[in-house]
Every structure is written in structure tokens, then in C-alpha cells.
Amino acid sequence: MKDRILMELKENMNKFVSGEKLSVELGISRTAIWKHINELRKEGYEILSSSKKGYKLCSVPDIINLYEISHGLGTQTIGSDIKYFDVIDSTNNYAKKIAQEGCKEGTVVVADTQTLGRGRLGRSWDSPGGKGIWLSVVLRPEMPPYDAQIITLAASVAVVLAIKNTTGIEAQIKWPNDILLGGKKVCGILTEMNSEMDRINYLVLGIGININQQKEDFPEELWDTATSISLYANENNLPMTTLRRSDIIKNMLRELEIIYKKVCTGKTVDILEQWKRYSAVLDRKIRVIYKNSEIIGVAREVTKDARLVVDCDDGVTREIISGEVSVRGLDGSIALLNKTNNK
Fold it and tell me: Which of 277, 294, 313 is the last residue of a domain?
């Protein structure tokens, strides 16, 4: 009922809607209307009230909730079912639980705060309330497990397009799963899979995007390697309207649906071409770290099965598989420098 009141107020933005009208249309008392209005105010919606005119929604701040994410989403599969939490340990953990229980493909788990957010290679991911987008998507692709890496690349493209569509900022992709702004990490993607020898039972795509953090919100040791969309815009004097996380989420889910259809119909070449367009890796000198060893070379290509082809300094061309592998710039940072055009 609260969502229906919010919808009515949003459709009449900056106009008064009488309490009596709401009461009649929704079939509840005016006292009940008043209680729901107060709940919306507690969530952050700026609503004016007048004993004679009713209620007026004046502004919608950066709020994520089920209504803000689902209203106007317009997708068929991705986001057809959305589970929202104010606080959760890990959206990936919950997504894996409900995937195991049989939830439908495209179910999205979103939280304002994660207490045990995780990144790739077992690293923790700081996920404070009001600062970012922390979500997971359950997928059930009909493909063998060894082809699943293309889904991570596809998700990277969806994130880059969503950021560009909503902010005008063009990010880059660092193989296999990081999104960069100005050479600093703004988003990480964690893909976890439950499979058998020849089939995937389910795949959980975890996406974390830093949106509103300022420099002091990051540990000092991450100042040179981490950023947020807001911080990047401020540091580069970019004009920026109010960032609404719900707008970015909806845009990302729409882009993910489009590119996931390409995955499911075998249009791998299209996905790789999009990925290459935003790559921060190709034709750059990089250091590939695997456990206690490393190789240095120039990243040349990404194969159809999402392997990174590196012309190594020892004269050997190697295909790198993501997993326990980190790719860094020569100075040890995540920024990938020293671009070369020597093939």
C-alpha cells in the first residue's frame, strides 16, 4: 500500500494530492494514509502536508528500495523478481541460497549495506550503507562450465554502459572483472558457480559499484587504487546531477538483460567486440601474477573463451585463464600503463 501511495505522489510530483482522494482510491482510512506518509518520510522522501490540500512530494533523494528499483524497470528476465534488504551479510551468499532452493533465473538480490561483502580471490569488499550498489543476479545459462567466463566479460560491459548512460562518464575494463575510472577501481564483479561436468546448475553474478564515497571513506592504503563515481567526478570537475543509485541499477539490469541474451544465443563475437572497445588491458605492458610467480608482457587479445593472450617478454605467447591470477601495471598498481602499438 505504501508503494501505491508513493506511485501516486510521484505521478503528481510537486503537486498536492488530497488525502481524501488517496483514501478513496486505495480503500483505506486517511489515518492509514498518514501513517504510510510518515514511513516514507523516515525513508528520506521529502513530503509536505497541508490540512486543506493534502500531500506533495517535493524531492526524491538517493534511496534504494524495492519500489525505486522495480518501478519502470521494464525487463523480462533480469529483475523479474527482486529481493531487497536494508542490511545483509552478503548478497552473493543469499543469492546462492535461493538459487539452490530453485529461485527463477534473473532473480536479483540488492542490499543497501553488506556486512561481509566479498571480492575476487577471497578479498573483502567494504559495502557501507548509502555509498554504493551491492547486488547479485542469479543466472541459469545453458552452457558448459568452461564457457562461463564470457558471462563475467558481458557483465563488465553492462556495468560500463550503465555508468555511461546515467552519468556520461566512460569507464574502462581491466581483465577479467574490474571496472576502472582514471586507473582506479570503481567496481568489482564476483562470479560464483554451481555446476556439474557438463552443465551449470546456477551462476551468481555479484556486482559492487562505489558511488558516493569520498577519499576519506577509503582506507589510506587504497587512496591510490580505489575511487567512486562521485569522487572521480569531483576530482575531474565534471558536471554531475544528483546520483541516484536506483537509476544506475535499473540501467545496469536493462543492459545486462540485453547482453545476456547475446550470451544465450551464442553471439560471443559481439560481446568481445564491446569488451575490447572499453578495455584498459589490450596493447599495454602488464604484469601477470600467479601465486608466487609472475610474467611480464603485452596483452594482445581476448579469445572466444575469454582467455587473455599475452606476448611475454621471454618470447612465449601465453593464454591466461582467470582464477588465482592478478593483472597489474608494471608499477604494481591496478592501472595499466605503457600502451604499445608494436604487434
Answer: 277
